[in-house]
């Protein structure tokens, strides 16, 4: 066997070992982190109704004119559905 | 084992510097403000994320070849991104309320006092040890008082790129804080009776007036202040596309896909300027302090101007609407409406405040042009 | 006081005066311009129904596939109207 | 006082040159045509606006560092923008009518006579003092006769960039004027009976035919005219994305957001070539005159070819459809339909005219390729 | 007549001949090609229902969950736009 | 006659080389796979089309000044396009299933064995005459085993640009072939009873968990593997925009218009690397063979890991879900679901397979980072 290939094989083998170990260690730490996140979110649960009221209102330089409210969209969608079926 | 050493050397753990950790915390703080406090999330979320990315050791996001480097070079160094944002904002802006009551332009002018007074303040800060603001730096900082993100980023990229990160963060943060900063000033400068004043309903503005308006603004800017034409020109292009009614597909794209794409990139590029060596300086504290001063002075100047106009006007003018002259569209107008409703539950000032609000956008673009012409 | 700061203060003061004057002059001219536009548009009002007919038809290289048919739009508009009124 | 002098020097008033004022008037005229007369507003509005911006003294929109400079460099100098527009147009084009009646391709060929005859005319114009068109200039001008915006811009950017502004303006203006230019020519070359001819209904074309068609067009172009493959290739890519049915999200984006974004930039970049020194020349008048000639000759050639074909064809061919061979999609086809209805209220020629209409797009892309190969 | 113009005219004339010939030859070959395509598609017709089922399912990295059809969205947007403007 | 000679010389017929014809056939094959066989059409259609364009003689699509040249330079050479795609994919990815059952991350880790084992195989191939893969080449090839298009293109553009075309084609082709490659391996490594195992329903994950998750992933990547932060960072940015709920317009754009535009360009640019001299080499055959090996080993490693975990876990784990660890989102998860249903018609594994499926995306981004850090 070519000696340079032999050397490359050794390097590839090392990469295989180091790489797989690292991937496993990394994702195992991530498992722990997810458990941590879950615990944190259980201990400090979200307020029951976070959306409607907050001290600082939703702010945006870009106005949102033309964006219909979800209720309106729902109503329209229903209306279209009805229209399509009765067509 | 050799590979393990290389791998250890290629973790960040071996290379973190204190400043980078602090800047990542700043990035996380911006994400917190954006997501939880809903401070201008469209900009502060990508800015915060960009701040984290740019401070990762070894990753080289903002070095030649890194993605943030390319985005900054292509979009901010050239000035193209803030101008495209401004085109999109123009395509979202309705000047109807201003055309119906053009006197409101004076409120948009008065509120620019926040910019020029801050210029003074920035220079005075040089008396404090540790500050060394040139007139150019001071101009870039003062524009925070314009309460207009793209204008601030554009001017800072021309005059003081190394302060861009702090200036953009200050501008967007204070724009988000308008509901907290403005009401006390508005209430201190007005009495209950003034706040109760109801204003006459605005007339309907014809489509043709709305089409000619941006062209007239552009024409005046060309004649008197060419240095402001990049900002004002792109803004008027957007507004003309919106109002003319014959290029709706272009107007829609400018207001949506194009501005969204550019916003993501602009935010990341601004974030890339939040590096430890540029941001962790006493200058940043100065910029943050001056920004708050600028907003406050601008608000006060607007309200005082409105009080003066109220005295000379036949039609009633509620002095609260002056506060909307700082721009921060549409938040400042909403704040005016809210404070007005507190004094008089039948007093809907929103439309009346939209006039000075959009006038403020023009006013700060003009102010930016003056600073570019005289200082740049 | 540092002489260079003093000089900068003078410059800033000049900028303040010149800048605010310019802003006021500029926007005051714009007020006049808006009054002019309004007068112009009153004197030469838009034709009552500019949309339906014109000598040169609306032209576009880009076709408008994907635009909903007018009937669908009409149906939806009616539906929304109804929805709003019954709300 | 010093600042005031600087400020005065930085107004445009102190620096306007006559040519710039005239070019701004030209820009306003283009805006008027776009908005009020609805002449190809998607292109002429940004072109007109770009023309105004590029002629502002001191603003430097089209000098190194200006936004129009960057847009031109990135999009037109490279040829990328017209090619992307062409991809989007391909994704909007339905070749069904042409596949159902492929003879119509001959009408798309005949109408290209307008291009090549104008080439002759442009050279002849050199006999008039003041004109000095090279063969390259003449080729770039002649392509106006193709009645196809992106093709004209692409070819002009390759062959005669300094004439690009005038060529693009002429191309889009005459495309908008098709309803005025074509009917007299069509009526002069046909009699009432010919205009009354009704054509057989077109068969339904299968999805598979529509998928193979753009590939066949590309293959032929590769074999016989590689110089045309940038234009034809991008066009066929768009059409294939539309017809294949498996990449609808890409096809939708190519037809909407992407083409809209590029259209805004392309228009501004073309407008940036409307500078006084390049546009205010007797050459521009020549280009406008030659463009009108090109459209007229193309229309006539198409109608005459249709008359010849009508004589040899078993199925009836209304000679009016030949006029649609100049492209100007879909306007020329609508004009054919209108003139046909005037002669015979039951004669709906729209679908029959769509065949030569889209054939004309291919025809002028081929003609552009020939000019690139032989003159470029 | 200027000799250079004369020469250019000869060149333009050649271009006219060569160019128009090429365009006609090219598009005539394309006519033949279209006839070929049509014949091919008649001989090997598409399966009757190509859409619903196929051996390999439609695959895409990008999901398309929750996307209403573009036409419906367009219709709703237009309707809302109209509604907002007439409000 | 002279013009005719020039015209003949400018047809491709006089200049075709054999390799170019073969590569055009390859391009047509890719179009066939995309359109008729529906193999990852969003990428393979533009790749196939780009392959045809780049091999046209005389057209110069990929030479300086050609449109594919510019697209490649701007988007792939800089690494920007795959990163933007990855941001969009992040904005489309729901980590709910993974957060509910984080153990599944181990399956995403195990499946990366396909990458590292292939590295070994690529080096071994050097023993066959004609192959000369360096360790850098081998790494770029091995990443095909990650079953993730943008990751493969990004890594190949950094490590072995001349192999990019073959690597991208192999990656997308095998991703499309997942329903054919995986089931036999899955069935060979499991018995009927194992395949019948039903898994416990997943709990509902709160919005806040989903917001913190991408930040945690980014934080860990920053600490331990900065080389992976370009990929992981952009992915997490997209995911954060999706989950945070305050920048819906940016998230929508990242998932739609932006990713669509970039996909068209990315595909064309990849196709431009399918030139005869780079693709028609025995290396390409090696890459295709190694890609199939990589997918198979990855699938097997995932299933075996799932079997091991099943033994130690209190809750039942169906070993089939391990196959989804290779990513190929969402196809591999659908294949798992299908094979599971064959064994037990009440066994819906789709949601359970989504966990390892998205874990596989993270796993291969991490693996790419390791290869960049140690080999790049
Ligand atoms: Na302002
Ligand atoms: Na044509
Ligand atoms: Na993977």
TrEMBL record, chains A, C, E:
Enzyme class: translocase
Subcellular localization, as worded in the UniProt entry: Cell membrane
EC number(s) from the headed UniProt entry: 7.2.4.2
Membrane-crossing segments per the record: 12-34
Coiled coil: none
Catalysed conversion reaction: oxaloacetate + 2 Na(+)(in) + H(+) = pyruvate + 2 Na(+)(out) + CO2
The entry's keywords: Cell membrane, Ion transport, Membrane, Sodium, Sodium transport, Translocase, Transmembrane, Transmembrane helix, Transport
Membrane topology value: Single-pass membrane protein
Cofactors that this protein relies on: Na(+)
Quaternary structure and interacting proteins, as annotated: Heterotrimer of an alpha, a beta and a gamma subunit.
Membership in a protein family: Belongs to the OadG family.
Cited function: Catalyzes the decarboxylation of oxaloacetate coupled to Na(+) translocation.
UniProt name for this protein: Probable oxaloacetate decarboxylase gamma chain
Native source organism of the sequence: Fluctibacter corallii
Gene responsible for this protein: oadG
UniProtKB/TrEMBL annotation, chains B, D, F:
Membrane topology of the entry: Multi-pass membrane protein
Signal peptide coordinates: none
Keyword match Ion transport: yes
Cellular localization per UniProt: Cell membrane
Swiss-Prot/TrEMBL cofactor(s): Na(+)
EC number, UniProt record: 7.2.4.2
Membrane-crossing residue ranges in chain numbering: 12-35, 42-61, 67-92, 104-126, 163-181, 211-237, 258-276, 282-305, 356-375
Oligomeric and partner information: Heterotrimer of an alpha, a beta and a gamma subunit.
Protein name, per record: Oxaloacetate decarboxylase beta chain
């Amino acid at each position: 066997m070519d000696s340079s290939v032999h050397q490359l094989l050794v390097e590839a083998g090392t990469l295989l070992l180091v790489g797989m170990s690292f991937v496993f260690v990394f994702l195992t730490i991530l498992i722990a982190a997810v458990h941590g996140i879950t615990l944190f979110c259980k201990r400090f649960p979200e307020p029951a109704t976070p959306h409607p009221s907050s001290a600082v209102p939703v702010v945006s330089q870009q106005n949102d004119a033309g964006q219909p409210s979800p209720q309106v969209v729902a109503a329209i969608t229903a209306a279209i559905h009805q229209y399509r079926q009765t067509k | 084992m050799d590979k393990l050493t290389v791998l250890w050397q290629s973790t960040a753990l071996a290379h973190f510097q204190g400043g980078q950790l602090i800047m990542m915390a700043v990035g996380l703080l911006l994400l917190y403000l954006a997501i939880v406090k809903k401070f201008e999330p469209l900009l502060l979320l990508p800015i915060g994320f960009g701040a984290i990315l740019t401070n990762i050791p070894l990753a080289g996001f903002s070095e030649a070849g890194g993605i943030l480097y390319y985005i900054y070079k292509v979009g901010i160094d050239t000035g193209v991104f803030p101008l495209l944002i401004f085109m999109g904002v123009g395509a979202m802006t309705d000047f109807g309320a201003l055309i119906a009551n053009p006197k409101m332009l004076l409120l948009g002018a008065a509120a620019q006092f926040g910019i020029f007074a801050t210029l003074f303040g920035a220079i005075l800060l040089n008396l404090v040890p540790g500050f060394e603001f040139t007139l150019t730096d001071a101009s870039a900082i003062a524009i925070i008082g314009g309460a207009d993100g793209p204008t601030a980023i554009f001017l800072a990229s021309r005059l003081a790129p190394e302060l861009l990160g702090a200036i953009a963060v200050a501008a967007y943060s204070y724009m988000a804080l308008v509901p907290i900063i403005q009401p006390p000033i508005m209430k201190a400068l007005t009495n209950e009776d003034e706040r109760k004043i109801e204003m006459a309903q605005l007339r309907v503005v014809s489509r043709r007036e709305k089409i000619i308006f941006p062209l007239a603004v552009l024409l005046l800017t060309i004649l008197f202040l060419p240095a402001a034409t990049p900002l004002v020109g792109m803004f008027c292009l957007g507004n003309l596309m919106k109002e003319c009614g014959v290029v709706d597909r272009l107007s829609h794209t400018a207001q949506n896909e194009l501005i969204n794409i550019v916003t993501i990139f602009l935010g990341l590029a601004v974030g890339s300027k939040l590096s430890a060596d540029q941001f962790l300086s006493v200058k940043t504290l100065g910029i943050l302090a001056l920004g708050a001063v600028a907003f406050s002075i601008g608000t006060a100047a607007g309200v005082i101007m409105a009080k003066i106009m109220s005295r000379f006007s036949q039609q009633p003018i509620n002095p609260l609407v002056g506060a909307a002259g700082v721009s921060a569209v549409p938040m400042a107008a909403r704040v005016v409406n809210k404070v007005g409703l507190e004094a008089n539950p039948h007093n809907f000032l929103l439309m009346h405040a939209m006039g000075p609000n959009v006038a403020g956008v023009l006013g700060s673009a003009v102010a930016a042009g003056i600073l570019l012409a005289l200082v740049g």
